[in-house]
Amino acid sequence: MDTSQFKGRHLFVAGGSSGINFGIAQAFARAGAKVTVMSRSADKVVSAAAQLQALGAQAIGIAADVRHPEAVQAAFAQAEENFGPIDVLVSGAAGNFLASALDMSPNAFKTVVDIDLLGSFNVARLAHAHLRKPGACVIQISAGQSFIPTPFQAHVCAAKAGVDMLTQVLALEWGAQGIRINSIVPGPIADTEGLKRLAPGEDNLKAMAERVPLKRLGKIEDIARMAMLLASDWGSYITGAIIPVDGGLALSGPRDFTAAAAASRREKA
Ligand code: COA
Ligand code: NAP
Fold this sequence. Notes:
Elements: E1 10-14, H1 19-30, E2 34-39, H2 42-54, E3 59-63, H3 69-83, E4 88-91, H4 106-127, E5 137-141, H5 154-174, E6 180-186, H6 193-198, H7 202-211, H8 220-231, E7 242-245, H9 258-268
Parallel strand pairs: 1-2, 1-4, 2-3, 4-5, 5-6, 6-7
Helix pairs in contact: 1-2, 1-8, 3-4, 4-5
This protein binds coenzyme A and NADP nicotinamide-adenine-dinucleotide phosphate.
C-alpha cells in the first residue's frame, strides 16, 4: 500500500503510549503523519512522543485519563491547536486482568467498564468537534471478548461488546458527515501487556498460539497494517465494520483461561 498518503495527516491515538496502539502510532509516524499520543502517564507519553520524533515525525504527548471528560476535551483542543483537525483517531485505552465474576468487586467490574466503554464514548464524543469533516476515520481497538463469551473476563466482555455496538451506532449517526468508524479486533498479539495478562508464562503463550488457526501469535505490525488500510483510500467505503485480525482465533470458540487465571493469581500473591 502507498503510505505516502498519510504524509502531513494528523493521527490522534488515545491509549497510545505503549503496546499495539503505540505500534500504530509508529507506523503512521514512519509514513510522515503528525502524531498526538494520549494516555494517563505523563512519563509514558513524553517518552512515546520522543520515540516518534526520533523517527522524524512531528509528535506530541498529552497526559489524560479517558475516564475524565474535561481532561480528554482539553487534550483534543491542544492536539488541534498543534496539528490541525484530526484525520485519523485511534481509540484503544483499556485495562484488563483475569478474575472470575465472583472474585471481582463491583468496583473491579466498573473500573474496566469505565476505561474501555465509557472511556471510548468520551473519546469519540469529545473528538467529534475536532475531526476533519468530511474525511475522518475513527478506529476503535476492540477484542474478541466482545462477541466470544469468555470465563474470567466478564468485565472485558461486557465493556468491549459495548465498544463494538458504539462503533455501529456512530457509523450510522456520523456517516452523513463523512466520518467513518470501525473496530479492529486484535487476536493474541506477542510482546504486549494485554497478552502478558491473559497468557502469563511460556506454557500459556504456547497454548494460545496453538489455538490460533494460523498457528502463530499476532504481531503489532499486523494490527498497524489494518489500521492503515482502514484509514487509507482503500478503506473509503468501509464503516461500521467489526474486523477480526486474529489469525482466525474468533472461529475457535470460547477460550479456557482457567490455567492462566491460576497462574496470574500465583503471580499476584
Ligand atoms: N483481580 C480482581 N480485582 C482486581 C484485580 C485482579 N487481578 N486487579 C484490580 N482489581 C480491582 C481492584 O481491587 C479495585 O477494586 P476494589 O476497589 O474493590 O478493591 C479495582 O479493580 C480498581 O483497581 P485500581 O488498581 O484502583 O484501578 P486503576 O484504575 O488504578 O487501574 C487496572 C486499572 C486495574 C485495569 C490496571 O490493571 C491498569 O491500569 N491497567 C492498564 C494496563 C492494561 O491492563 N493493559 C492491558 C490492556 S488489554
Ligand atoms: P497496553 O500496552 O497496556 O495499552 C493500553 C494503553 O492504554 C496504554 O498506553 C495505557 O497507558 C493506556 N491507558 C490505560 N488506561 C487508560 C486510561 N484510563 N486513560 C488513558 N489511557 C489509558 O496494552 P495492549 O495489550 O497493547 O492493548 C492495547 C489495546 O489492544 C487495548 O484496547 C486492548 O483491549 C486491545 N487488545 C489487545 C490484545 C493483545 O493481545 N494485547 C488482544 C485484543 C485486544 P497509561 O498506562 O499511560 O494510561
